[in-house]
Amino acid sequence: MVLYTVTGKVGEEGYLDIAKSGDLTGKNIYVNMTNKCPCSCVFCLRQTKKQQENNTLWLKDGEPSIEEVLELFSKYDLNIINELVFCGFGEPLERLEDVCAVIDSLKNTYPNLKVRLNTIGLANLIYGRDVTPELEGRFDTVSISLNAPDENEFLELTRSRYGIQSYAAIKDFAVLAKRYVPHVVMTVVDKVMPEDKIKRCRQICKDLGVTLRVRPFEN
Ligand code: SF4
C-alpha cells in the first residue's frame, strides 16, 4: 500500500488504502515509498518476516517507481486534503532523491500543498553529507522520532546500524533542518515513556530550539 489514510483504529484497520478512503476532504494522505530503514526498533511492527509480510504497508512488489507513485496520485484532487505525509513502513529518506522528485512534481500542480516528513533523522549518516538543504521548499514540517532522553537508550530502542553516534546525529539533523524547514518537531510516545523522561526530552528539544510533540499511545 503506497498511499493511505489513517483511521485511528487499532491494527490493520488503522491504515486504509487511499482507494478505500472515501471523501479525502481535510484528510492527511500518507505516502509509503520504501521498506528500507537504517534501524530495527524493538517496538517496530516490522520485527519479523511474518509481521512484515502480513502488514499491508509492506511493499510486497518492491518499491514503486516515481512514475508509479505519481500515477496513483493522478486519480485524486490534492487541493482538498489537509497534508501529505511521507512516512510509511520504512524511512522515507532512504529514497531522498525520489521523494524530492515526487514532491516537486506534485507541487507543480499544487503549489500550496502542505508536506510533512516523518523520519528517524539519520539521513545525514545514510548519505555521509548534510542533506537538509534538499528539504527546503519541499517540506513544511519535519517530524523526527526522538524516542529516548539519551544516546544509550536511543540505541537500545532503535538498534540503529550507525551505533552510538546516532543520537547526536538526529539532534544535529533537527538543528540543521531548522534552517530550511518552517516547522521541526521531535516526538516521543506518551505512556511508553515515563513522565520524568518526557521532561528530559522536553529540555533537550528546548535546548535545540525545536518543539517536542508527545504522541498519543496507540496499542
Ligand atoms: S525507524 Fe521507524 S520504520 Fe525504522 S525500525 Fe524504527 S520504527 Fe521501524
From TrEMBL:
SUPFAM superfamilies: Radical SAM enzymes (SSF102114). Keywords: 4Fe-4S, Iron, Iron-sulfur, Metal-binding, S-adenosyl-L-methionine. This is Radical SAM protein. GO terms for molecular function: 4 iron, 4 sulfur cluster binding; catalytic activity; metal ion binding. Residues 23-219 form the Radical SAM core domain. InterPro entries: Aldolase_TIM, rSAM, rSAM_sf, rSAM_TatD-assoc. Pfam families: Radical_SAM. Gene3D superfamilies: Aldolase class I.
